[in-house]
Amino acid sequence: TTEARSEMFRLMLGSRDMVLTDCVGSVEAALSAGITSDLVLIYVEMVDKAAVENLRRLRGATQAAILVLLESAARRDIEALLENGAHHVLPLGLDADRFSLATITAMAQADRQRDLEDEVASARTDVEATKRIARAKMILIARHAIDEDEAHRRIQKLSMQRNLPLAEMAQQIIDAEILLC
Length: 181
Description:
Mean pLDDT: 85
Distance between the termini: 78 Å
Number of helices: 7
Radius of gyration: 26 Å
Helix content: 55-70%
Order of helices and strands: HHEHEHEHHH
Number of strands: 3
Strand content: 5-15%
Strand order of the largest sheet: 1-2-3
Low-confidence stretches: none
Shape: elongated
């Protein structure tokens, strides 16, 4: 029951000098009450679409750390929860052992970190490409007394004619300008 789980969590936290302030029976109740705590504990009996969606909604509504208490220790369940907003997952079932949990969590968090680093690298590359294109447009505007739209069209046309990405074509324009000056 919810009351029994609440009491169990209250005792577990109390023995660690932490206080359980609010206890609600569902994510909807937590969202409607407004989440103001530093830590949110969620009990998940089974990882399904509803549990994942609730976790995503909760993650979007709070900056609090989210600890999911899970009945299963299945790797795919733990990974699904970590991918969808849990900061940590603690299996409670009989098949839960600390080494397996630590291994699964570390690997899932490393994958998540790699994905974020890839996104950052991609964003940086996009920003650099945009800067090169803008610089090439400025060169064409200054050299040919055209507007920005016409400069962009010319870079696009050259890019298509030479079968080069737009950013590479822009870099060639910049390099040519440097050689001519």
